[in-house]
């Protein structure tokens, strides 16, 4: 590269191939040169060193860019949602640079001296899990990677509710017709979600009903069911750090007599009977090939007229999280999103009568925006608790997920099923009005 040639000049042809003309945001390079956006500037992508290009050459696409961002050799400045939306709008998800783009990228990287040996991924990246997918051992390793980050870090991101699932931004007693209300606080929205689940499961009918909470996290749903409705709750998780803190929170709330937390796999539950089962934000880890086993296992744990509420992220047509994607390497290895129609069919195959399906995707977008705000407000503390790489992972993954729920690429459904008696009694109210 000649002395008068800037890094921006070397990369302008590649950016034109990627975006059709000028990029949708400002690109700034380590030599101070920059490429200006085609219109209003929503933010800046700062490429801080040649190392960023090396990551992107060796792993083209989102994984290489994600690695560079986690390593700190790429920064996204400005409103993270606006920056990601601008990039997403300018380059459709199925876009490819093709052979010409690959040659431009290699040529530019070579001229800039960025083609070196394959870089090591940042340490926060999950190594590909070993063994057959969705075995107990492999699932435990995957769950540990995501959830055993540190309870204090999760408390900072999730807020006082310590609930890592979609909240419901509406009054706890509304009729289910109101739009998501962004003025509701995150804590109130999580409380409303827990209350809705309890009412759908019929825990309002009498004190002392026995609830199984699959994937109980830090115990928030279990505590709500016990303290508000007098339920006797068994919560299960395979995360050791979750189980430890859940037990501590339950003891501090004086609920140890009615709430039990077990560190165990749901597949090891046998020989017990429950009045209701809640599964909130856990089904994404089950996988399509295990869905029948999952619902068969839960079916065997329910008494006649017992209800199951399955609350899970969904994807039209179903979607496996690819191992070479950013989410697959950094966030949810082995994750899989099922089409809600497939969830309904699997529940019916297990003997459930599906009585209600509710979509809450706009609520999850609001939830994620609240979590991103918590993270950005407490950034220095988050970095001290979990490291800068981990904080960067969470910032970009949560922001991108929020956009996915806003544009409909991701869905969130609560599916309510019941086990009818031999005489066909379901025990459910005739309309939704009973639970709101």
From TrEMBL:
Example GO molecular function: methyltransferase activity
Keywords from the UniProt entry: Lipid metabolism, Methyltransferase, S-adenosyl-L-methionine, Transferase
Pfam families xref list: CMAS
Record has Transferase as a keyword: yes
Annotated region described as Disordered, given as residue ranges: 114-136
One GO-annotated biological process of the protein: methylation
InterPro entries: CFA/CMAS, CMAS, SAM-dependent_MTases_sf
Entry superkingdom: Bacteria
Keyword Transport among UniProt keywords: no
Family: Belongs to the CFA/CMAS family.
The protein's name: Class I SAM-dependent methyltransferase
Species, as recorded: Nocardia tengchongensis
């Amino acid at each position: 590269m000649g002395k008068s040639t800037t890094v921006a000049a070397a990369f302008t042809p590649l950016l034109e191939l990627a975006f059709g003309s000028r990029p949708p945001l400002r690109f700034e390079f380590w030599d101070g040169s920059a490429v200006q956006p085609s219109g209003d500037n929503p933010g800046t992508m700062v490429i801080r060193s040649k190392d960023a290009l090396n990551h992107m050459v060796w792993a083209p696409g989102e994984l290489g860019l994600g690695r560079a961002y986690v390593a700190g050799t790429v920064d996204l400045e400005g409103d993270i949602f606006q920056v990601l939306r601008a990039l997403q709008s300018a380059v459709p998800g199925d876009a490819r640079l093709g052979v010409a783009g690959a040659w431009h990228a290699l040529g530019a990287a070579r001229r800039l001296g960025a083609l070196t040996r394959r870089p090591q991924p940042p340490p926060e990246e999950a190594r590909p899990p070993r063994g057959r997918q969705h075995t107990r051992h492999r699932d435990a390793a995957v769950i540990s990677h995501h959830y055993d980050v540190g309870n204090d870090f999760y408390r900072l991101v999730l807020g006082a509710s310590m609930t890592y699932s979609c909240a419901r931004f509406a009054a706890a007693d509304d009729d289910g017709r109101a739009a998501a209300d962004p003025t509701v606080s995150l804590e109130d929205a999580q409380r409303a979600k827990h209350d809705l689940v309890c009412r759908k499961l019929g825990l309002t009918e009498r004190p002392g009903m026995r609830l199984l909470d699959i994937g109980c996290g830090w115990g928030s749903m279990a505590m709500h069911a016990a303290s508000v409705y007098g339920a006797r709750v068994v919560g299960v998780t395979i995360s050791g750090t979750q189980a430890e803190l859940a037990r501590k929170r339950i003891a501090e709330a004086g609920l140890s007599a009615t709430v039990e937390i077990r560190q165990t796999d749901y597949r090891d539950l046998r020989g017990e009977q429950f009045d209701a089962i809640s599964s909130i934000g856990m089904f994404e880890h089950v996988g399509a090939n295990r869905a029948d086993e999952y619902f068969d296992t839960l079916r065997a744990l329910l008494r006649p007229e017992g209800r199951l509420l399955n609350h899970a992220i969904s994807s039209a047509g179903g979607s496996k999280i690819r191992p070479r994607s950013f989410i697959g390497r950094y966030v949810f290895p082995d994750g899989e999103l099922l089409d809600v129609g497939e969830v309904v069919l699997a529940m019916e195959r297990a003997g459930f009568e599906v009585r209600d399906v509710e979509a809450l995707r706009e609520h999850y977008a609001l939830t994620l925006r609240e979590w991103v705000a918590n993270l950005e407000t407490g950034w220095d503390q988050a970095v001290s608790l979990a490291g800068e790489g981990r904080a960067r992972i969470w910032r970009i993954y949560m922001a991108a997920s929020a956009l996915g729920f806003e544009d409909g690429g991701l869905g969130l459904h609560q599916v309510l099923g019941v086990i009818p008696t031999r005489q066909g009694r379901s025990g459910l109210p005739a309309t939704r009005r009973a639970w709101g």
